[in-house]
Fold these 3 entries.
Entry 1:
Amino acid sequence: MIPEQKRTLETWVRARATPQKIVLRSRICLLAHEGQPNQQIAQQLKTSRPTVLLWRERFHQAGPEGLAEDAPHGASPQRLEETQVKAVVEATLHTTPPDATHWTTRTMARRMGLSHMTVARIWDAHGLQPHRVKTFKLSRDKQFVEKLSDVVGLYLNPPDRALVLCVDEKSQVQALDRTQPGLPMKKGRCGTMTHDYTRHGTTCLFAALDVLAGTVIGSCYPRHRHEEFLKFLRQIDRQTPSDLDLHLILDNYGTHKHPAVAHWLKTHPRFVLHFTPTSSSWLNLVERWFGEITRKRIRRGVFKSVPELIGAIEDYVRLNNQNPKPFVWTKRADEILEKVGRCKAATVTQH
């Protein structure tokens, strides 16, 4: 490195307007000029050794100008022939590799004689994501339209002097304890936990979500039979204003339709049950709340006993009710039916 080149790099490092990537590259070359080894440079600048080697070689070939220019990329979709882009898109949509269910950028790149980054840019430009798949299930309930309209009507236009409650059970919630203590999160490293665990039993969480207020009535029971469901209905009866009707949105689980439950409901006429269509749990907003408690409190929790798990669930319910945030339903029944119709038409076309 000649003195003029060194002065140029030092000026770039000091100047506030210099892009940080140029500052990093300049520092790499200056430290290398001082005789520091590559690994030590990488550690000092918090980068990788291949990065150090890359920009030292670039400086050796082109001087400071080599640091100010990014490496040339492979052919981009704009520079490719239209036929090449079309071939990649068609192959992605209508073929699969002989040894896999879907293409990756590298397998497609080998197939087409392109770089994997070029394939990635083509996929991005055309909205293609072969690595992802979404699950679905169309309800075959003969009363799908009626049940859908009934439930959505409760969300969008709830009756006067009544509470709309979404009710369901989250069964088999496991009290899992990790086999070894994990490490806490720190700068530059996420928290850790072992992949294996010890089971300490399960509990069943019964929950009733107030659609308007966002508060939750919840209880944990060892099982989820009709006996436990009746206990939970009595709890709802005690913890809600007695002068209000209660409209409960439930799924079609047999417990909810047990003769003992039906008999109890006859003696408590303020309870009105509304059932979602089969295979349509997404219509019940309490499922959304179950997702929240799973993500925030259960999935990464460490529980040495079932009572400890129940205590954590009860704490979450209590804190939720101190600052409730209701889920707002926005889709009308006709919009949902239109989307379901498109989905049915697409599946028929594909098969």
Note: Strands lie at 162-178, 197-210, 216-221, 245-250, 271-275.
Entry 2:
Amino acid sequence: MNRVNQLFGIKYPIIQGGMVWCSGWKLCAAVSNAGGLGLIGSGSMYSDVLEEHILKCKKATNNPFGVNIPLLYPHVETHIQKVINNDVKIVFTSAGNPKKYTHVLKSHGITVVHVVSNLKFAQKSLDSGVDAIVVEGFEAGGHNGKNETTTMCLVPLISKKIDIPIIAAGGISCGKSMLAAISLGADGVQIGSRFAVSKESSAHINFKNQVIEANEGDTILTMKDITPVRLIKNEFYDNIARMYNQKKSIDEIKEYLGKGRAKKGIFDGDLANGELEIGQVSCSIENIFSAKEIVESIITDYRSQLLKVNQDFGL
């Protein structure tokens, strides 16, 4: 059996990214009900809100689901306690050192997965005792690695060195890209951008439509010296780029950023002043579908492409 399917007890090795302002209980439950693994994105939630989403998700699905916890965000300690108290079985951690919390989570029988952007952090994650890793190339949206290593380079590099289940992320949105990731050494895939514009995503319709309208080259990885993030170029980004060109200090840029930029763009739908976090693959997303339709189309496309490859090579 596929190692990711076995680890999580799911039908398909498709994990929905735990994206801030997109990944509430509705999206999480819908993906899990479709046979993948849904994740609640806790990075945009207070701990009592997270608990509410966990409880609603439990009512909406009998299938496995998890919670994504960015370790550099506030409320990490209370988030972890809410996860433990509500008997969540799977936690994905990101944006920080997994060593501090992995043992605590695993001591409560929780399966732990950490997101990495290079081999060094993959090895540190292995040493900390995680059960699997998400290997994320810089094509991915939102907070990202500084090295700009692509998924196609990163997955085979890490799969040669690390012998725990590997989940590829970044630039994956269809069955063809899923097949490519599996061929490179991944056991499964994590998909963010396509689920970000699904019907069940909590993102604002303005944001979803902006993603659908995005063309090649419309996203960029910026603010590497603060917190690297891939977003759609807009007025907010233009102002950031102008400040860098004017040699403004990091403190001045941080002051301009303020707080709540991602919420403003993704959740409130302010396309000018908000941070529109999305991956490069946005240029290939053309419609708003349900999570079930997305999962089914990916699996159908995967099987069709695998058959075609086998036929082309006489296998």
Note: The longest strand covers residues 65-70.
Entry 3:
Amino acid sequence: MKRIFIGILLTFILAMLVSVSFAKPWRWQGDQKNTYGWQLMTPEERTEHQAKMRGFTDYNACKEYVGEHHKQMEERAKEKGVTPPMIKRNPCDMMKAKGRLQ
């Protein structure tokens, strides 16, 4: 009986350790597919942009920042003589839908 209990306990502990090691909190990860103007930013700007996006808790502040970011990227595209990227979706709307923004 004692062996069965220890076996069950060890299995439970192992299952918890494995599940915790695979669990990740949702974290927005920017890349060229989901970040407006990715190709127009330096690696440092991309890192800074990702940090700002992860730091938002207020929907309106996020929308304001994203709007300004889009304007800057449009200006850069014009300066470089390239077509501005298409806006696929607003990241603030997605983060609000996931419960990250209020």
Note: DSSP finds four helices and no strands in the chain.
